[in-house]
Known about the structure:
Blueprint: H1 3-20, E1 54-61, E2 68-75, E3 78-84, E4 92-101, E5 107-114, E6 124-127, E7 136-137, E8 142-151, E9 161-172, H2 179-195, H3 203-212, E10 224-226, H4 233-243, E11 248-251, E12 254-257, E13 259-265, E14 280-286, E15 300-309, E16 318-331, E17 341-349, H5 357-366
Antiparallel strand pairs: 1-4, 2-3, 3-9, 4-8, 5-7, 5-9, 5-11, 6-8, 10-13, 11-12, 13-14, 14-15, 15-16, 16-17
Amino acid sequence: xxxxxxxxxxxxxxxxxxxxxxxxxxxxxxxxxxxxxxxxxxxxxxxxxxxxxxxxxxxxxxxxxxxxxxxxxxxxxxxxxxxxxxxxxxxxxxxxxxxxxxxxxxxxxxxxxxxxxxxxxxxxxxxxxxxxxxxxxxxxxxxxxxxxxxxxxxxxxxxxxxxxxxxxxxxxxxxxxxxxxxxxxxxxxxxxxxxxxxxxxxxxxxxxxxxxxxxxxxxxxxxxxxxxxxxxxxxxxxxxxxxxxxxxxxxxxxxxxxxxxxxxxxxxxxxxxxxxxxxxxxxxxxxxxxxxxxxxxxxxxxxxxxxxxxxxxxxxxxxxxxxxxxxxxxxxxxxxxxxxxxxxxxxxxxxxxxxxxxxxxxxxxxx
Length: 367
């Protein structure tokens, strides 16, 4: 067997083995773009795992002068790179990313997402000169876009190197969320993992134990917990630990904080569902700063709500319906007039008719 054939056969076997284990195969690549399907005997380019609806085909350095962007790997729509700037305050490193829509429907760009741990240098920011929320890519089409890396506010940072892992998220056009939904969807996904013990074998019990420990957390009872202003340090620390960075997300270069309240109460009116006492778990989420601009009257903030119930006395939890958009009155955490928190008892859905979360779930069951 020829050497070339042996190398290609070995590469195929490695890819098959990794795919069967649920691992994606990634090789480093930098330089000019490699066309999709083009062979490279050095295997120095990134091969996506089973292609997603939209996935990165290739990416390459587009910098000039003594700045550069090294593409360290990619899979799906996630790009890992190292940008190195010069000592000039207007230095710019650049990369071109090529994606393909492998689906049979139109997709649109939603946002760039990453967690703080995946972005090594806050003194360097990224910019998308052309790509914007809502930009479309038709079925079967390719799309090239540029991502630039620059010093924040044109101030030379203490380090000129940025290692980042960015997710350029594309969604079906008819599922494209509003901008404020982007951040809360990450928190919602993590909440599902917490209450189903995916985060840890006892992640749900950790949450319940902290809710029950209300005497030491300055709460009136054990039916709620949150990370709002005024919440105890113990509550905030536990929630940050369980949510694993999903309460702070950088979206299109802006760090977004997600404020949550988790309630334990009977939402569907049945004692046969939920926990052993018939209670559902509801998470309320907002990216609003929760600051009242006037002491007169009631001010509201946009708040999203999702309800989870259990059919096996709290062993596993299932979402009822979808994530619902609504509003809630801005108040202090102690329920008094002021800022920093919101009153879940005042939550009502947007649109017409406006409904409480109990009415929404009742209507869902009746239909």
